[in-house]
Description:
This protein is mainly alpha-helical. Helices cover 52% and strands 8% of the residues.
Amino acid sequence: xxxxxxxxxxxxxxxxxxxxxxxxxxxxxxxxxxxxxxxxxxxxxxxxxxxxxxxxxxxxxxxxxxxxxxxxxxxxxxxxxxxxxxxxxxxxxxxxxxxxxxx
Length: 103
Ligand SMILES: [Zn+2]
């Protein structure tokens, strides 16, 4: 496993070499702490996206919420899972319920 980690780092360094030149110039004007901070903030976004994906993929969408369209407040129709916040396909109207409500 350690070998795999080293190989991954080597691959990243090769990508960097193709992009910025063979040798890393530590005096190329970049602020290394700022570069690191920006990369870590990007990593936080990527990890959050991955966690949301895992959460949605493992969710059984048991608590669903239907929001009907509200033209006066400009709220569109939506159907979401309250457990994982995934937007779900809006179900077809239930005609039995519709008939009961309009009678
Ligand atoms: Zn869900």
